[in-house]
User: Fold these one by one.
Assistant:
Number 1:
Amino acid sequence: MLTLTSPVQTWAHRVAAPWKLVALCLATLLLFRLTGPAALALAAAATAALTLSFGATFAVTALKLLRPLWPFVLFVAFWHGWTAEYAQGAAIVLRLLTAVTLANLVTMTTRLSDMLATLTALASPLKRIGLQPRALALAVALTIRFIPIMLLKLNDIRESWRARSARRPGWRVLVPALMAAIDDADRVAEALRARGGAG
Amino acid sequence: MEKNITYIALFAALIAALGLIPKIDLISGVPITAQSLGIMLCGTVLGSKRGALAVLLFLALVAIGLPLLSGGRGGYGVFLGPSAGFLIGFPIAAFVTGWIVETWRGNLFVSAFAAAFLGGVVVLYAFGIPGMATVLGKTLPEATLLATPYLAGDLIKCALAALITRAIAQMRPGALLSRA
């Protein structure tokens, strides 16, 4: 679950992250301008060819990332099958799949550290309204560390509930888990202050 | 300052954790996830500004490619898909929720429930439905119809957000930054 970056090395991994983001923005703008199914099919084919050029393993992973979209594709297919606007339905589905695949390609070929560097660079103009880049970097690191802790606490409390009750643990585990997490956060804040603070 | 940063990071992590716990399927097969409960809690517990910042931090982590959205989704792709409108509405929903809890200083449970409903449902859907309509090429009423099955689950989440907020106020009063 760590990141979505593909372990399969491609030439796109070596392109600097900002260029990929600019290219993605331009490509997306273009996609939402195209309305004909023929032009969109061409764009979809080009995207598929680009994905396949990165190798079969890479392409299979890219395809798997599209899985959460199938209910929407099904919905549009049914809708436009019913109203017999086939061309319009095809255009909507093609645009959706192409745009999401292109964005996923950028995500899959960029390391997390490069993404973080880009995020810090993009946020640096916010210094003027009071957001310190150091505070942002600290918050990102803390969140990434807090997520597994939170899941662990939820799991611990669910386990101890199961050991004592035959009923299923529902939302009730949330309150003690959140309390424990809040206590942790308080101690982290104290420790930060003791070490010179975050400012 | 340190407390603000750690609490913002903690609640960003809470949204992620709530998206990763197993989802419940409604009879119609529409999954309801606890992720928007995290958005509501950001507002009711942290207040308007800090709540919105926690949500923005969470979205930044999603954008840079961590699969933290419910169903293990992440990366830039999600901002172009059918739920893009909901994602854009997330921080605004947390801000409105927090603002209501800060301003309406009556009974905490009632105020938190109303805030979670107005922010986490009304405001969120006001962004989510047009987003869905745009991406799927539908009219607004059609997209609204597509979103209604979620409403029952959302009401449960509002009640949960209010209960949890009240529990925090009773057990860790110092953590309730929205009423600090």
Number 2:
Amino acid sequence: MSRINLHLTRRQALVGAVATTSALAMPSVLRAANKIVKVGALAPLTGDLALWGIPAKNGAEVWANQVNKTGGINVKGERYDVQVVSFDGAYVAEKTLQGARAFVDQDVKYTMVIGGDDWSALQDFSNRNKMLTSTLYVSDLNPTSKYLLAPVEVHPFYFGLGVEYLRKVEPNLKTAALCAQDDITGRTSLAYWRAGFDAHGFEIVSDAYFDNSTTDFAPIVSSMLQAKPDTVCIDTTYPSVALLLVEQLFTQGYKGRILHAGLELLPDMVARTSKEFMEGSIAFFPRFDDPNINASANGFSDAAGFYKQFEKQFPKQWNNTSWEFPGCLEVWKQGVETAGTFEPDDLLASLKANPPKHIFGAARWWGKELFGIDNALVGNWPIVAVKNGSVEIVEIGDQAAWFEAHKAIVEKRFREEKLMPDQKR
Amino acid sequence: MQFLVETVLNSAMASASTALVVVGLALIFGVMRIENFAHGELYMVGAYATWLFGTSFGAGYWVGFAAAILVTAVLGAAIEILLLRRLRNNPMGALIVTIGVLLILQTGAAWFFGINSNLLVDAPVSGVLSLGGFNMPWHRIVVIAAAVLILTALTVILRTTKFGWALRAVAQDKDAANLQGISIGRISMSAMALSAALAGAAGSLMAPIVRISPFMGQPVIITAFIVIILGGIGSMEGAIVAAVIYSTFFTFVSVYFDTTIANVAGLCLMLAVLIVKPSGLMGKAQKV
Amino acid sequence: MIELRNLSVHYGRAIAVNDVSLSFPSGTVNCIIGSNGAGKSTILRTISGLVRPSSGQIVFEGEPIQNLTPKQIVERGIAHVPEGRHVFPELTVEENLKIGAYLRADAAAVKRDFDAICGAFPRLAERRKQFANTLSGGEQQMLAIGRAIMAAPRLVLMDEPSMGLSPVMVATMGDIIRSINAEGRSVLLVEQNANVALSLSEDAAVLEQGRISLAGKAALMKDDEHVRVAYIGV
């Protein structure tokens, strides 16, 4: 995209943009009595990945409103209201970096990013400025970024649990077909899926990446089904891509379960195939209007209430990312209230010493073997399966335990894709 | 065997869609000597128009299809009248302007419809044709049939109507065409409208099959340029033949290997043909 | 019936036609002769509207036409057979002829004229369905003339019709021009080959570096010493 010529200096324009955005993001009821602490959502609000960035930012705002309504954050007796400041990084290196600089200028105490390409852009700056940051991509973690945490999403580490569940309910299946888009997300997650299938006695009979620009998925599905797999895994494909893959699987006569990270467009999948076809398919993101949600998302104060509030404020925009920034914020809030400070070094030390609750329950700091640093907050994760057209929680598993049990296999598969810490740059 | 038949039919569908797009591009190049870089975006506009009128306004797929053709034709005419007409003596300028149009259309689509590419267009005929063990969705057959119909109609127009002769005349010799009283402006505008409508029709036909996003035109235009070079610049028959060869090759390689390899292999195919026949399969030496 | 009044045409800063005044009556064949680059083609292209004059007027049948578009010129009844023929290479002979009648609405009249031309040019009729780029030079010249006639013109402009043709073909060309004239159409010819042009024409003019150096009856000009030396090579 071309740059627009500003007659202001860049810094003025930046501060102006951030001030305007944050003014718009301010909660409607602002108690003048409480002090303010700023948290930053540095996410793609335009561009291809806005479909993750916008709900994440909106979720953060809803969360901040809720917290402020119930008295704000308690730091050694003083109450602080949370103000969400956002900046559109557009998943583009330069813009993301601009955002980071703006956040430092604005004295933002906690930054949230989606992760992946946008983290690599701001890594050096963030390290130098001790910006406590959360990412949704565990693969971003590395020994030099000690202020980077992965407190919520541990994609792809829940996938092993999914295969374990599949094996539990389908002891006789033998073969699996896998596909994913050819980018860093696809490669990392497929490596973990492969480990999962290896660990539970499946033979992988078809394993392919497809180009990100693919528009017609019939050939890919033909290729997978040529090997006559008992089960099909479509990894973390974009929602609309998953829909087209599912449609093709149905058309081309596949019968069996489908494993996918999110099954975001399940209602459309059912409409284009059938309830029977989708029955039993497996995913990893529960509905927040599932009656059991508060029980499983017990690290989140009132998940059901949060969902209701989000739906009210942003109707029909809920997707799997809507609760991820709030999840990061919950972890941070616990840390701040325990440590009694916002300052990064003390807060980090306190967090490590007193692992906060993860959204899905008790958790521990993990990751040294795969990332060189224990900055991933890992605990339980739910497995959902499609029952009568919508997903229901069928199992809750311990991700770290699964990893411990199958470490050797995971390492082998990660080495193949050059993902082990000693293989990275 | 079933697998092979399925792949052949999918190749036919890919050929149909590619041929529609490529013929439009070849038409513009012939008549106006311009490579229209925004051609893929006209395909994208066709898909979005189908969604808007067919799904969002609920008027049904075929209304959406008609709307797609109309909208893209008007857009094509507008591009010619407002922009390209002023750049007739400046082919480099015209090229750059089409890139500008590409960016405007992409950004406009992202602005109006959002980046969230979950827009769904339902096919006008659901269900599959079951033949001896394999299933071909009816809509894919519709795409093939529609493309054949449209290209046949186009051929009839070009071969038997005064308008068609005028289009070909302008493409062959602009000065001489002028001397017969043919209005170059009118013909250019009509050619742009026709070319855009072809791209829009392709986008509309493919809308139920592919992922709709503001950037969906990008791979389309790249394929189209490869195919035109393969077929030979200046030959519409060559473009259609090349579309079939390339799409079939690409589909088969996608199925038996994967799509990334298919992209590379497709380019290698183009290079191989050019080494043997530099002007493309049916191209002629360019009169400069 | 066609009159050039103080016509000047510039290409950039170069003068191609310099203050030319000429007048030719209707119903006759007339010519402008001159060597390469004298400005003859430019005059024809200005009459048919491809080029705009910088000053002066062109009057046809009493009306000024110097600012009309090529389409309007054809509508007024002037057809131009360009230098180098310029038939449409990938249109058939039939399509080439029919496109000459692009602006005409009367389908029956167009068909009559088409049949007449096929009758007059049997070699073209034989090759009706062939692409024009498969024809010989002479056949293409016939086709270009036929195409112009299909516009039902009252004045036919011809730019070097004898160029590149064998002496036999040139003679045939002469016959064709005479028969066109016999139908009641005027012909304005420009040529380097002065012999042929002058023998066909009633009135003539000599153009040298954009200026008229001589004008008058063609028959007399043939005997003019200067003309003979410069243009007839005798």
